[in-house]
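Much of the work behind modern protein science is quiet bookkeeping, done one molecule at a time. The protein below has been through that process, and both of its lines are reproduced in full.


***
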Amino acid sequence: MNNRIRVILSLAVAALVLLVPLAALAQETTSALRVTVYDPAGNPVPDASVTVTDTRTNSSRTMTTSAGGTASVSGLQVGGPYTIQVQSAAHQSQSVTGINLRLGELYAVPFQLGGDTTMEEVIVTASAMASAQLALGPSSSFDLHDLEDYPTINRDIRDVIRFDPRIYQDNGFVGAIHCGGANPRFNSLTL
């Protein structure tokens, strides 16, 4: 009986040892940003507020720069566009728009803030756009203009969706569509 328990424990330990390296091979499905903030003289700016906004979903993350003037954010959805806004008490705020992220890459964005903190008042007026949520997770919408202008062969929808940077089409597997690195069985396409 004692030998049987030792054999079972040995097999369990061997199975765990074999499964641990598989976790290291997991697919990367996100991207990251590193923002470095400098003052007009080129010195790092600590304690500046950095806000990263995904303009597709309007979700944002705010962080503070370190003593070296850097702030990093990871786990961002691939694609974009993203908007980065930097605010500092001693310097004029700045923002950058239209940043698109690639899968698994660290995108470095340097900022050099201006010295003057005076700013004019800006009033923005907007109205809500009527839309319906079709599914949770990443999504793309193509309007009539896109469908008419994108080059297609035989009016195949796969020719249109290939313009989304999160989409990969596996022609060796009967044209399977991978979204964000996921298996095609877990993706949904609504027309």
The two ends are 62 Å apart (CA to CA). Strands lie at 31-38, 49-54, 59-64, 70-76, 79-87, 94-101, 106-112, 167-170, 176-179. The first helix runs from residue 2 to 24. The longest strand covers residues 79-87.
